[in-house]
Amino acid sequence: MLDGLNPPQQEAVVHGDGPVLVVAGAGSGKTRVLTRRIAYLINVLHRPAWTILAVTFTNKAAGEMRERVLSLAGEDAKEVALGTFHSVCLRILRRERSRAGRPNFTIYDPSDQQNVMKQALLTAQIRDPRMTPGVTLSLVSKLKNELIRPQAYVPASYTDELVGKVYPVYQELLRKNNAYDFDDLLSETVELFKAEPEVLERYADRYSHVLVDEYQDTNHAQYVLVTMLASKHRNLFVVGDADQAIYGWRGADIRNILDFERQFPDARIITLDQNYRSTQNILDAAHAVISVNTKRPEKKLWTDKDAGPLIRAFEARNEQEEAQFVAREIRRLVHRGTAEPRSCAVMYRTNAQSRSIEDAFIHEGVPYRIVGSTRFYERREVKDVLSYLRWLANPEDGVSLTRIINVPPRKIGDTSQKALNDWADINGIGLWESVQRASEVESVGPAARKALAGAAELFHELRSYATSHTAPETLEYVLGRTGYLKWLETEDDGRTRVENVEELMTVAQDFQDLPPEESLRSMLERVALVADADQIDESGGAATLMTMHLAKGLEFDVVFLVGMEDNVFPHSRSIQDPDQLEEERRLCYVGITRSKRVLYLTYAMSRRLMGRTERNAPSRFLVNIPEELFTPDSNKPRQGSNLDGGTGWGWNRWSSDEIEPARAPVPRITESTFATGDKVYHKIFGVGTVVATELSGGDEEVSVAFAAKGQMVTKRLSVLYSGLEHA
DNA sequence: ACCAGGCTTCTTTTT
DNA sequence: GAAGCCTGGT
Q: A686-696 and A679-682 as β-strands: parallel, antiparallel, unpaired?
């Protein structure tokens, strides 16, 4: 039962009743402890699986945990309530609202929230340029995470006062649309428990054990929620690492983990400090960075692994050279048999940095995949179609209705829409009702009235179809009956857009076996709660490109941390505030500890940022790592050299022709192997057409037109490196 | 009603 | 350097 676990891990797994905090450093086997503990609760302590609740932050983590628990504890474990905070709350809200006969509501994503907030700012007559919808939303979000309700909010500054004015308006708009935003899923669940203690009682009674992963990233609402759910049996088992708290900007409160002992005086604290992932050199580097932080309980990871290879720092002239270095280095490692592309990861601070990396990987023919940034569910056509479905599930959802009322174009212009909205407000009715009664609205012209009557009829028809059909059937019907698909084909990038819609159909098909009244709702729930991190997929032969935030919880043989420059990482917006700087430092710690063995830290002397070319000093984090951990050929800036903003950082720069020139014996190309008009195949871009080709320096540069990312894109590819083939 | 073109504003990080 | 917003023309 306890085989393969070290003593503190065993202690955590077999702990009896009462609160437990497992302080689990990076790579110390926390998922292992969590899954083994769940199996132990089921198999040894004979707790029924359905009385166990385990909460994670991503669906992917939940899925993996489910899989591992199933293999440890068998079929019974299916009954374990296991999910993200948001999905657990959604389940509770849906169930409780069904009891009250109002099962349907929409979950608004950030772009929907943006629309609602714009309207709220207008209604509240706030025209302060500081209060952009985005800024206001994040302030409101903070309040919700703190469980501060609009009426209980006490403004303490001018900005606060403005927030105090919009917050209730925003909230009222959500209510009118019968919608929740992400934060509401948490805060409304807590609110429900407060308002109806007997409901809480049911859940608290049911869950004999509550386990929480990544506890350092919980916010106040999550803390209260978890405490409530565990209030009856007091078996709260949380796992986390304060050094990996990187979501403070999203409302996570690191004090939840730091103060756990104080909040639960009888808590057992178990520390896992043996690292099973990384070499000693990596751990030393990570420790050198993190130990600068003041607000942390001192702890140090250890390993019985060897020192491992030294860390390589690389200074590039600009971001292109940096990216090229990374791509070539991976190619070199692969060529030498040291690593496979799939065991390599490139991590950056901001998504914008992926671009130059991507370009270089394409040029050098290194297979890659980017996680995040390209969000399927944020594409226009996907949002359009989802808006139809969301509106069908919830006719009060005016945001979705607004989105589709004139898509495809039905000659219902902005003026008419505004008139309908105003009329709805004046009469205290919803947008859908005012659409149906458009003929009563004086300010809507005759042509628009006719168009609206047509739309209303169409939408009625969709509605009656949807009530008796499943999600895929409804989707199909909507696409045909509205003419959306046909219209989409005529739009720019029609082909790829249609493909995206078809992709959505594949998602819908997962729900075809559910009864009609559940099918669509379930699909929309799934769609609402997918996150970038869920898309990470270790299979396949490609290197992974992602932000350091998304990398938390993952591990790779080879890790490149790129953009190691002050103002890039740490980010310029965090550099002044000590607390935010500490969070950046933790992020760096997370990045470093993703590596099992090989670590590269790269920085560029100059880099284009937001259109301008900037020169930044090497990152202070880089400077914190002791010299002796770097390879002799590293471009390592001298200790402390960049902290006072002085000139001359004293790095021992290589001249650019000393950059690793990929010495693998490569055949030279002396005559053209491709001709204009050839159909070619590229493993990333697929099939394309050659538009030009040119020989240069023993290589052939082929320009190929691909249909990529929704448009025809011409890429210059190296025949030598890109693996381009005749199709 | 719709389009094109020029303007601004961004960019952290995301369930 | 892109996407979104506004403006003014058709």
A: antiparallel
Q: Answer yes or no: are the C-beta atoms of A649 and A628 closer than 8 Å.
A: no
Report pLDDT digits (tens) over A324-369: 999 999 999 999 998 999 999 999 999 888 888 988 898 888 988 8
Q: A641 CA to C5 C1', in Å? A: 44
Identity at A594, one-letter amino acid code: R
pLDDT tens, position by position, A385-411: 999 999 999 999 988 998 888 888 888
Give Cα A724 distance to the centre of its chain. 32
Beta bridge mates, A269:
A21
Helix extents (H) in A365-490: 380-393, 398-404, 414-427, 431-436, 446-467, 471-481, 484-490
Residues of A tagged active-site: 30-31, 213-214, 244, 594
Residue A298 corresponds to which tokens in the numbers above?
A: 């001192």
| A458/A430 Cα distance (integer angstroms) | 18
CA dist list (Å): A530 to A114, A139, A535: 19, 24, 8
CA of A486 to C1' of B12 (A): 39
Q: The whole model's pTM is what?
A: 0.82
CA torsion, ordered A515, A517, A522, A525, to nearest 10 deg: 180
- CA atoms within 13 Å, Cβ hemisphere of A157: 3
For the segment 340-379 of chain A, residues whose CB is within 7 A of strand B: 349-352, 372
